[in-house]
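Lab notebook page, bench 4
Experiment: in silico fold of construct C2
Operator: M.H.
Input chain length: 175 residues
Purpose: comparison with the prior construct
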Amino acid sequence: MTGPGQEVAPQEGDDRPAARTRTVEIITLAVVLAFSALLMWDNWRTGIDWESTGPKAGYFPFYVSLICAGAALYGLVREVFFPPDAGAPFVLRHQLKRVMQVFVPTLAFVPVTQLLGIYVAAFLLIAGFMIWVGRIKPWKSVVTAYVFSAIMFVIFEVAFDVIMPKGPLEHLLGY
C-alpha cells in the first residue's frame, strides 16, 4: 500500500511503451493540420478580404489558421523525414494506467452530472477518487465527499443563487 503522492511500482511488462513519441507527434500534427484546414475553409466562406469599413469576419481567423496549418505541416515534414528520436517512448504502460484512472472517471462525470445533478456527481467523483486512486479509507472518503458537496450546495444554491445542473435528489428537496 502506498501513501499520498507515492507512485505504485510498475508491474512486469508495464514499463513497455504504450505509445511512441513520433507516433503521437504525427497524429497530433495531422489533427491540427486538418482542423486548421477546416477553419481556413470556414473563414474563407465567411469572407477573408477587406471592406470599406475594415476586414471581414473571417480575415484574422483565416490567417491564424493558415499559420497553424503551416506550423503543423512543418512539424509533419520534420517528423516524417527527419525524426529527432524516432524510438523515444511517449508514455509507458504504467504511466498510461495512472492517467486513465483519472481520465475515465472525469469523462464519466459529464453524463452523470446530466443524469444525477452536479452535487451527487461531485460526491461520487470525489469519493471514488479518494477510494480508488488515493486508497483512502472509504468512511473518510464518503465523509469528505459529503462535506465538500454540501458546502458546494450551500455556496452555489443558497448564498449566490447560481443555477447549477440538478438531478432527482435536488428536485426531491425542492430545488
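Observations: The chain has a mean pLDDT of 91. The chain has two domains: 17-87, 94-172.
Next step: discuss at group meeting.
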